[in-house]
Amino acid sequence: MEPLSLHFLHEQAGAHFLGVNGREVVADYGDVEAEYRAARQAVALHDATYREALRITGEDRASFLHGMVTQEVKGLEAGAATYAAMITVKGSMVADARIIRRESELLLDLEPGLGAKVLEFLGKFLISEDAELHEATGELGILRLMGPRTADLLGAVTGGPFAALPPDTTRTVQLAGQEVLTVGRPGQGPGVDLLVPRGGLEAVWKALVGAGGAFELKPLGWRAQEALRVEAGVPRYGQDMVDTTIPLEANLTNAISYNKGCYIGQEVIARATFRGHMNRKLSGLLLGTTEAAPGTELKKDGKKVGWVTSVVRSPLKGQTVALGYVHRDHLEPGTVLALGEGPAEATVAALPFT
């Protein structure tokens, strides 16, 4: 398992650790509910340096990647970011990625464990284009700030007001002697990702923690972040999306451009869109006090109609909630489904839970 660069700092803070796709993450710091509250009410700091990254350089970098993903890339302005999926010719997912366009390169921000897979996928189609693929996980790490006091904290550590950063926009700041790229995060409340040179991670983390007391900052682990993610209805590749998932099944309309022209797998997406429905869709599920495991079948009248993918205890809903795939005939919120062989039940709910 690849350890976190800041393992020793987290250990000093009382962290517990776990592995996700071969990379170490902080599970929690001993009080998941307090971490969650900080992200909801103040500001929380999460070490997301377990994520992986690729860089694409060369004159044809934008046109090459444009033909490889479901989202617009050629029209992306320098300094902007977007979310996209990579799919096969049959429409099933290879990975998802946040793409950041910089002046001289494209940066792909990936889930842990996907760097080599995406590098191989893109490399198979890179033939005559003037584009080069580079592994970048060892160059940059992501520190994530979440919560309504994020901008206040960034203003304190950068020495001036920090205007709230809209989703998918970027701004470069100087922080603890490092040039840091800040990226606005969509979908889970106020938050900013900080792309930090690996050599500067310790200095930036310590600066944020040092200034964070005035803003009720708490470090935030994986478990609290997962609760926030599921409450927001955001699927995660490797948990809610796998190699057989079609992006429309996972509600990834925000990852798809319908005006961009050809890309690998486009025909499948176009046919599914024209048909107007998918046979199953990712949905919210209310489980009450039941602690179901991912993979648990959902049934209606004894027939399998879906399965559970992510399960968390939701402070917001005061019960266990889940994401899962449900057949289109049973997607109406309020529909009650059996969990496995019963008697426990799941109630279909609209997403996001928030």
TrEMBL record:
All residue ranges annotated as the Aminomethyltransferase C-terminal domain in the record: 280-353
Keyword field: Transferase, Transit peptide
Source domain of life: Bacteria
Annotated protein name in UniProt: Aminomethyl transferase family protein
UniProt domain GCVT N-terminal: residue ranges: 6-260
MF GO annotations: transferase activity
PANTHER family: AMINOMETHYLTRANSFERASE (PTHR43757), AMINOMETHYLTRANSFERASE, MITOCHONDRIAL (PTHR43757:SF2)
Organism name: Archangium lansingense
Keyword GTP-binding on entry: no
One Pfam family matching this protein: GCV_T
Keyword Transferase: yes
